[in-house]
């Protein structure tokens, strides 16, 4: 949430920073700004997109050191004044900030009482004034002094006109990565902004600071004691951060699902013993057998796929399992059990609610593993072990390929847990064969895109829709509704099909379509019964199902997906819902990759 870039070196900073910000824009896109240090400190900032900022940069906006920011508003509306960087009254200090300063109101009051005129509504501005008021000898000391007054989370970068040879950065809860170039240094909140310039990077940990000069960087704790931090090479293809020939990242990422699925499965299917092979779990068979319960924690789509994962664990391993929204977990003072396996699931590995849940579990002595896409991210590092999802960079706010790989990660985990218990080798092999078929079957669903696009055009007219499913199909419905509302801005509500007649059936009418998940399984007949009840009330129906399901006389439009093993069907039922949401949003003319009010990584509570 919010993106930070910084550069110091031999080139003009502004064009490099603008390019970096464009790559970070999915993290927040309501306003953007730059500060450069040349003959003095200059700032340009603007509500709107990075391209608007670039088009409007003042003349001679020059300097070989600079910082930039793209914002997702927390304190104060999205306008020019609230955009970052924020400066002190004299205009000597510029600060960009990700995160939230919890005691901002108190600090703002103290500054106002001291006669400081605050220009913006933001929490961040106090930092600029606090740094400016410090009389310490070095910029590092001044920043550390300011941070000592702050409660909250931050990733910050600071420029000071009196210290033109450096950028000082600090991290507490919001990621910062330093990139090492040739006689130049970069910093960014996300690898994607750096990889065009360098793949030699160093991650800062919480509570750490760094100074960047054109020739190198030093790292230290906030008490300014030095710490050694080596930069290392990351194995990443910079072009994987580009949309290529696609008109949106979401479309690119949906189409990448077959290859992403192959990657997460590669080397992890043990056909001989019919089990999963997850080295990263770091648990032997005895430890694995000792697990009495599985608790999955994630937010948004990661929570919904966590519900799919919980079903897999219960079905294959017969271990009680459930998923919970990580954003609620720690606020109910959860009981942490020593024989429960906690699983944190996150694409970004940065979602603050999930990270805080992990920290709460570990603080109470629980064991937590991660299903995480971004290698080296905060959640991945905080967990006791885990499964990397290998989906590749996901840029669109709407998660697609990462979600698919989360499901497959859960299937592997459930297999491994099941095979040290009562899951037979025959069932293990059946599921391994099913998993191996999935990438091709996902491709089959994607190949049906044109028909789904037509259907989406009709659905886009509806102001309100229901997505319904039962048991394995319910999290599919939740995820379908999530995708639809996220990018089409239509009201889409997910419900258990069985619960409709307990209330929401009152809303069914010819204006309210229902998308029903009806796989060929033990509940098909009951599901078909519910379809009749919807149709009888004039509700238009779209049914996501399998070709051999007999829907009788129910008037509906059907979407048939290929059949796999029952336990693995949910992911194949999910893919068409991504395409429906995508095409509805396209028909409605929305910015697919940057839906209003949202951001890719939610790093504020
Ligand atoms: C997915 O389409 C959403 N943008 C959102 O719900 C997302 O899944 C959630 O914020 C969790 O993100 P994470 O996977 O990076 O933790």
Characteristics:
alpha/beta; 18 helices; binds 2-deoxy-2-amino glucitol-6-phosphate
Description:
A hairpin with a 2-residue loop joins β12 and β13 (216-221). Strands 3-2-4-1-10-9-11-15 form an eight-stranded antiparallel beta sheet. Strands 5-6-7-8-12-13-14 form a seven-stranded antiparallel beta sheet, with helices on one face. The model has no long low-confidence stretch (mean pLDDT 95). It is an alpha/beta fold. α14 packs parallel to α18 (569-587). 2-deoxy-2-amino glucitol-6-phosphate (AGP) binds at residues 299-302, 346-348, 351, 354, 397-399, 486, 601-602.
Q: Quick summary of this structure?
A:
By secondary structure, the protein is of the alpha/beta class.
Summarize the helices and strands and which ones pair or pack.
Elements: E1 3-8, H1 13-24, E2 31-37, E3 41-47, H2 50-55, E4 65-71, E5 86-87, E6 93-98, H3 104-113, H4 125-133, H5 139-148, E7 154-160, E8 167-172, E9 177-180, E10 185-188, E11 200-203, E12 208-213, E13 216-221, E14 226-227, E15 232-233, H6 249-255, H7 257-265, E16 269-270, E17 275-276, H8 285-289, E18 293-298, H9 301-317, E19 321-325, H10 326-329, E20 340-346, H11 352-363, E21 367-372, H12 378-382, E22 386-388, H13 401-419, H14 425-447, H15 449-459, E23 464-469, H16 473-488, E24 491-496, E25 514-518, H17 524-536, E26 541-545, E27 557-560, H18 569-587
Parallel strand pairs: 18-19, 18-20, 20-21, 21-22, 23-24, 23-25, 25-26, 26-27
Antiparallel strand pairs: 1-4, 1-10, 2-3, 2-4, 5-6, 6-7, 7-8, 8-12, 9-10, 9-11, 11-15, 12-13, 13-14, 16-17
Helix pairs in contact: 4-5, 7-13, 7-14, 9-13, 9-16, 13-14, 14-18, 15-18, 16-18
